[in-house]
Specification:
The complex is a heterodimer. Chain A is mainly β. Chain A is built from no helices and eleven strands. Chain A starts with a strand and ends with a strand. The mean pLDDT of chain A is 94. By secondary structure, chain B is an all-beta fold. Chain B is built from no helices and twelve strands. In chain B, the strands form three sheets. In chain B, strands 2, 5, 6, 10, 11 and 12 form a six-stranded mixed β-sheet that branches. In chain B, strands 3-9-8-7 form a four-stranded antiparallel β-sheet, with no helix packed on it. In chain B, strands 1-4 form a two-stranded antiparallel ribbon. The radius of gyration of chain B is 13 Å and the shape is globular. The termini of chain B are far apart. The model of chain B has no long low-confidence stretch (mean pLDDT 93). The chains are: A mainly beta, B mainly beta. Chains A and B meet through strand 5 and strand 9 of A and strand 6 and strand 11 of B.
Chain lengths: 115, 111
């Protein structure tokens, strides 16, 4: 049981490049989400999904795209990287989809630097 | 939208002593969940404790306990008998539909 996995762990991009951060979970969780963590700002929600084929925006969605074709996978795409997207990115999943006290499990994070 | 405020960016405590981390939140809902997460230097997010809003009894997990004041919208974390391994960032989080986090408190336990 791997839990929530993320790849890569580290990435350096040049401004304007695109890339996809991968996230997968093997716990059959319906809810998955992406956060970015910046110093002094905690974790901010980028996008989330309550099931395959359903996604929605969080607090800071601009510059990011997501899709959810399977229950297991929830990739995050940066279409044209900007220095403001330099951050640590976390993927998370939980069983319940709304108003729940279910434990949210986090991946190990991806440190992204945009030059 | 709900907001979560942690007013203490940094705190320190001597080993074996007790420390309390503060958190306030804002919501118009009556039922919701509150959490404290720990992030050690490894960067992994670890659930410490959770509280359901309609339960009046404060949650306890070993050395960790909360003081939940619903009317005041306050949710503080008390760590008793602090250990060096408690050194970490601590995040307060609020879950209504999606989980929102405070800015965090960096706790250092000194030997």
């Amino acid at each position: 049981n791997a839990g929530v996995t993320q790849t890569p762990k580290f990435q350096v991009l040049k401004t304007g490049q695109s890339m996809t951060l991968q996230c997968a979970q093997d716990m059959n969780h319906e809810y998955m989400s992406w956060y970015r963590q910046d110093p002094g700002m905690g974790l901010r929600l980028i996008h989330y999904s309550v099931g395959a084929g359903i996604t929605d925006q969080g607090e800071v969605p601009n510059g990011y795209n997501v899709s959810r074709s399977t229950t297991e996978d929830f990739p995050l795409r940066l279409l044209s990287a900007a220095p403001s997207q330099t951050s640590v990115y976390f993927c998370a999943s939980r069983y319940g989809t709304s108003g729940t006290g279910d434990t949210q499990y986090f991946g190990p994070g991806t440190r992204l630097t945009v030059l | 939208a709900q907001t979560v405020t942690q007013s203490q960016p940094e705190m320190s405590v001597q080993e074996a002593e007790t420390v309390t981390l503060s958190c306030t939140y804002d919501t118009s809902e009556s039922n919701y969940y509150l959490f404290w997460y720990k992030q050690p230097p490894s960067r992994q997010m670890i659930l410490v404790i959770r509280q359901e809003a309609y339960k009046q009894q404060n949650a306890t997990e070993n050395r960790f306990s909360v003081n939940f004041q619903k009317a005041a919208k306050s949710f503080s974390l008390k760590i008793s008998d602090s250990q060096l391994g408690d050194t970490a960032m601590y995040f307060c989080a609020f879950n209504e539909n999606d989980m929102r986090f405070g800015a965090g408190t960096r706790l250092t336990v000194k030997p």
